[in-house]
Design brief:
By secondary structure, the chain is of the alpha+beta class. The chain is about 20% helix and about 55% strand. It contains 2 helices and 9 strands. The radius of gyration is 25 Å and the shape is elongated. About 5% of the residues have low confidence. InterPro entries: Beta-barrel_OMP (IPR027385), OMP/PagP_B-barrel (IPR011250). Pfam families: OMP_b-brl.
């Protein structure tokens, strides 16, 4: 049995030597991928379903409108990125069949973190601020009804708010990604309306 020990040690050493180049190759490949993404800029386009909730302090109605946006961002490090979005409303939504709400435009700035969950997908979270201008008016035949005050005043009452979102992206071609995400677009501190965003889009890194 003792005579087998040198042979086992030699076999272990040979196996370790054989694995070393493969380990080094994988490590270099991962490092190259990290270096390639850090410092990259990306451009994208997205479509968004906008959920207007609690538009009035005393009412719980909600409505859905739609928006579209362009985005530009940069990877400031391996795991962090900064991003700017400029968007506009596409179709208005209706709350309780009484109030029509829409976004004229919005601009969002985010700082976020991303982490690879597979070789082709990443999970990310973003936090930032949004400036928004919108519009609200009563639907035909609703004069004097529940949402009269909001229709007579500016909606949203406050134009600047904290925003956040969570998302996933998937690389479908070299440096080309599709993404899915959801979060809060803004909160109107005057009417207590909470407006959430659910988006799908595509972006390309270069």
């Amino acid at each position: 049995m003792k005579s087998l020990q040198p042979m086992k040690s030699l076999a272990n050493l040979t196996f370790a030597i054989a694995l070393f180049p493969a380990t080094l190759l994988v490590s270099q490949s991962a490092s190259a991928r990290e270096e390639m993404r850090e410092g990259r800029t990306y451009l994208g386009v997205m479509g968004t379903r906008v959920n207007h909730r609690s538009v009035d302090e005393t009412l719980n109605g909600q409505g859905w409108s739609s928006a579209a946006a362009l985005l530009i961002g940069t990877h400031v490090s391996e795991y962090f990125h900064a991003e700017l979005r400029l968007g506009t409303g596409v179709t208005p939504g209706t709350v309780d069949q009484q109030l029509e709400v829409d976004l004229d435009y919005f601009a969002s700035w985010y700082f976020g973190g991303h982490y690879p969950i597979t070789s082709y997908s990443n999970a990310y979270a973003q936090f930032g601020f949004t400036h928004v201008k919108g519009d609200a008016k009563l639907t035909d035949g609703q004069r004097g009804q529940n949402y009269q005050d909001i229709a007579d005043n500016k909606y949203p009452g406050s134009s600047f708010s904290v925003s956040w979102l969570l998302g996933l992206d998937f690389e479908v071609i070299d440096n080309g990604f599709v993404f899915l995400e959801g979060g809060k677009l803004f909160e109107d501190t005057e009417t207590n309306a909470n407006v959430f965003q659910y988006s799908v889009g595509a972006k390309y890194e270069f």
